[in-house]
Amino acid sequence: MTAPELGEAALAALREAFGESLSTAGAVLDAHGRDESGLEFARPGAVLFARGEEDVVRLLALAREFAFPVVPFAAGSSLEGQLIPPPGALSLDLSGLTGIVEVCPAGFLAVVEPGVTYPQLNRALRPHGLFFPVDPGAEATLGGMASTNASGTAAVRYGTTRENVLALRVALADGRVLSLGSRARKSSAGYDLRHLFLGAEGTLGVITQLTVRLWPLPAHRAALRGAFPDVTAAADAAARVMGAALQPERLELMDAQGLRAVNRHLGRAFPEVPTLWAELTGPSGAALEEALSLCAELFRDAGARDVQVARGAAELEGLWEARHQAFYALRALYPGEVFLSTDLCVPLHELAGVIAFTGAQLQEAGLDASVLGHVGDGNFHVLFHAPAGDTGTWERIGVTYDRMVAETLRVGGTCSGEHGVGLHKRRFLRAQHGEALDLMREIKALLDPLNILNPGKVLPDER
Amino acid sequence: MTAPELGEAALAALREAFGESLSTAGAVLDAHGRDESGLEFARPGAVLFARGEEDVVRLLALAREFAFPVVPFAAGSSLEGQLIPPPGALSLDLSGLTGIVEVCPAGFLAVVEPGVTYPQLNRALRPHGLFFPVDPGAEATLGGMASTNASGTAAVRYGTTRENVLALRVALADGRVLSLGSRARKSSAGYDLRHLFLGAEGTLGVITQLTVRLWPLPAHRAALRGAFPDVTAAADAAARVMGAALQPERLELMDAQGLRAVNRHLGRAFPEVPTLWAELTGPSGAALEEALSLCAELFRDAGARDVQVARGAAELEGLWEARHQAFYALRALYPGEVFLSTDLCVPLHELAGVIAFTGAQLQEAGLDASVLGHVGDGNFHVLFHAPAGDTGTWERIGVTYDRMVAETLRVGGTCSGEHGVGLHKRRFLRAQHGEALDLMREIKALLDPLNILNPGKVLPDER
């Protein structure tokens, strides 16, 4: 199915309908032509700054009438090319829809517009002793997070965005606006259509409102950092923690490469060995101390040479510094280079093996890249980097990437743990899903027969 | 769309294909003509005892060819008429598919056939220190639990069946068998089609294999039981527990009526007042004691007059006795009567109000019924009972039930928290879902254009 395009008649109708909310200014088009993946750039034909759900519905009516593609956009922080407009597309900017419609502390829920960022929501929740736990980084919006099923470091304890969205309002390509889900925490009342739109990257509908689940802020928090002789020992420690029902809030792994970058960039002296972080919480200080001792013991049993403990905000910040700064340190060490992050997720017991496989592949290809992992989930990232024009290196990166994905699928994993598919991962979907990919296409054809919703994303071009 | 029927030619072809696995014996047909809801009875035209996925695929080919309906069946414990065959249907009995294909302790996952019951799975997991936490009661099978998105008392901590199924194999009406999901704990790789089939009650496909998520058995466990002056105080205590990040394993409410029944039936002397149970676990004994003290304090703050604590298996059994025996006690007190359980779920802060509304409605209608609740989830049941032929009482029950559902939907809840829709809840789906119900119909037409998969369930007849 070829994608339609935005023509002059359509632009005139859009100007008529939306006036100043529509922009074709060069700088605005530029700002909507890239995401954080940094590999593609393509200007949209126009940008609409939506002022509310009605604008979305009206826009989709014009998109049907004039047959042009619509690409939902908000923070611009997607990592797989989700926001790159196909030729002549309209970029639908939802970042202005920042209304926190309702906070219901007693019901542990909030209703938000799609342009609300998770830090903005958490600032509003703090006075109530509650928080929204999904933390993908950047200033991601709830609409974008729902569209890619984003997660982050706290998913090991609280689940991904998917598990924390109770209800959605979604504008369909055909003009309908549906309410999906309820305010109740669980439901068995008919097909759960929420999940079709969560992770669909704007290809099946446009999310116009979200009802999200909130969690109580833990009263007591502490963290441990362990230095391990090798990645296998660190992965073993992680498995022990997960098996001990310690319910860590976070469980993060970083290889020696990341720590070297931090030491060089910030002048620190962290041990340049595979490092594991665990964050724990408890309903009381004493309960937390018990959990900390047990966790430290598990770290040591698995071979940790050095275990540091942090309590209180300042100490926690220090303990986590290397993990938080790794991405910036690596960027700073290779100024001007392009970074590409993989995002694979495997069953927990396969993680050490897949990371070892990855290390061997990196060595064979002569690539220098770091490994970071949300290890409690089996999710890990390899941060590749090279100058944009260094085609030789980018080719080797491509080959290595493909081998890593093949190994991930061989052990039953997924080609995307949290970043989504966008443009970059489409080529892996047939291998991962087999015939289920055909049903995905049938669902797409049912919901978007004119192919106006973010065409060319998620589903591969196979012919 | 009218449902097709099983004719003589179809029966001959079925006998030819399946031999002894096909039965039309009267006792077998009788056993497949009812579920635990007890309101309907209708014999299927035949029963196929499937021996594997190939039988399911072959059966569906014949169902297409001869246009007869197929109703998946396993434990027979559904509560909303899900298993009642439409005229001339074939009942597809999957209860013989009891293979535990794989237990992978290090990956916290198991692969099972759909006829495996959750107690059977948990017996196989115990030696590994793991368990599957969803406990809907009866000897429910994993296939049935997935098909209704069943939950139970532990969903407050571990989620429902939906959150604990990593992957599915599903046989479609058109002959395809799809693998959905992966062995990884999370994924953002395309549309998540698992969730279409979870809770679809066999109307979109037949589940032939499940990969489920396992959890470590908590090392230390204890429980509290509090006696409260009224339901509002007990609901308030539940809200405090949920707000304190205590992460109870269970949080259950029962009204005075249920305790009276237990006392009369078993000769006990439990205080006949609204009662709240909380079960807590911890990574160490000391951590658990801390959590217990805090929870008891929250119970007392909310007005509990008496708080009992139990530690160890025997004490726990005693503490939970009234809750576990309530259903049997009520059945025993009204021998020969038919029981009907509602299954509503509301946001936590609305629970006390909806239960109070329910109490007023019961009183107005002169009905004697008990209220039980998975209160941490906002899920509660009213157990109605009356002699089958007492049409006057059943009419008043019907009116009361409808008013309870209307109030539930008014506060943003759902007409089914865990039992599903089947035949009984279909009439509420338009009010609950609005236009989203039309999209459910479109999905059904896409996946089952001949309407052979459990026709007449979930989706209401509106014309």
Automatic annotation (TrEMBL), chains A, B:
Its EC number is 1.1.2.4. The keyword Transit peptide applies. Gene3D superfamilies: 3.30.465.10, 3.30.70.2740, Vanillyl-alcohol Oxidase, Chain A, domain 4. SUPFAM superfamilies: FAD-binding/transporter-associated domain-like, FAD-linked oxidases, C-terminal domain. Keywords: FAD, Flavoprotein, Oxidoreductase, Transit peptide. The keyword Nuclease does not apply. Its cofactor is FAD. It comes from the Bacteria. Residues 40-217 form the FAD-binding PCMH-type domain. InterPro entries: FAD-bd_oxidored_4_C, FAD-bd_PCMH, FAD-bd_PCMH-like_sf, FAD-bd_PCMH_sub2, FAD-linked_Oxase-like_C, Oxid_FAD_bind_N, Vanillyl_alc_oxidase_C-sub2. Belongs to the FAD-binding oxidoreductase/transferase type 4 family. This is D-lactate dehydrogenase (cytochrome). It comes from Deinococcus seoulensis.
